[in-house]
Specification:
Blueprint lengths: L8 H4 L3 H25 L2 E9 L5 E11 L2 E11 L6 H17 L9 H8 E6 L3 H4 L5 H9 L5 E4 L1 H15 L2
Parallel strand pairs: 1-4, 4-5
Antiparallel strand pairs: 1-2, 2-3
Helix pairs in contact: 3-6
C-alpha cells in the first residue's frame, strides 16, 4: 500500500519487534483521543496492508472522526496478521483490535464489537486489493454481512487509485 502510515513501513521496521514498537509509540501518543472518539463519535475506519522486510503482513488501521469542529485521522493499531490473510481472518483481527482499543483491555469477545460498530461505523476506506475492497470475499463485504449493514459505505482510497493510474500511464509510455 501507499498510504502515509502503511506504505513504507517495511523500510523502517527491520524486525517484527521494531514494527510493533513503532506502533506502540504511535498508539500511546493518541490513546486518550482514540478512546474518546470510540466512546462518543461516529467514525470512518481506514485500512491499508503492508509487509515488513521480514515478510510479516500487517494491516494499518486508522480512524477518522469529527470530534467537535475538527476532522482528524488517528492511528488506531498495527494489526499483525497470522497465516490467515483472508477477509474473514482480517475481520477477526480487526474486531479484536477494535475491542481492545475501545475497552483498554485485552479481550477475546470480538462479537461484543458488532453492536457498537453497527451504530458507530460510518464507512470503511481501503486500498483496491480484492481481499480488502471486494463485496464477495473482501473485508468490505465481510464487514457488511457481520454488521447486517448492506448500506455501509466502502470506499477505495483515492491515493491508491491515483498511484495505479500513474503506473498504468508510465507503463504504456514504454
Amino acid at each position: 500500500g501507499n498510504m502515509a502510515v502503511g506504505g513504507r513501513i517495511g523500510q523502517y521496521c527491520r524486525t517484527p519487534w521494531t514494527c510493533r514498537q513503532m506502533a506502540l509509540v504511535m498508539n500511546k501518543m493518541e490513546k486518550d483521543d482514540v478512546h474518546e472518539i470510540m466512546k462518543n463519535y461516529p467514525f470512518t475506519l481506514i485500512m491499508d496492508g503492508s509487509e515488513d522486510v521480514s515478510g510479516n503482513h500487517v494491516n494499518i488501521a486508522m480512524i477518522q472522526a469529527n470530534a467537535g469542529a475538527m476532522q482528524k485521522v488517528y492511528f488506531l493499531d498495527l494489526i499483525l496478521l497470522d497465516q490467515d490473510e483472508t477477509a474473514q481472518g482480517q475481520l477477526q483481527h480487526l474486531l479484536k483490535s477494535l475491542a481492545e482499543k475501545r475497552t483498554g483491555k485485552l479481550i477475546d469477545r470480538q462479537e461484543d464489537m458488532v453492536p457498537f460498530l453497527k451504530t458507530n461505523l460510518v464507512a470503511l476506506v481501503t486500498d483496491s486489493a480484492a481481499v480488502m475492497a471486494s463485496e464477495d470475499g473482501g473485508l468490505c463485504g465481510e464487514l457488511r454481512r457481520a454488521l447486517g449493514r448492506p448500506e455501509l459505505l466502502c470506499h477505495r482510497c483515492l491515493n491508491h487509485k491515483i498511484e495505479l493510474i500513474k503506473k498504468n500511464v508510465a507503463n504504456k509510455g514504454r
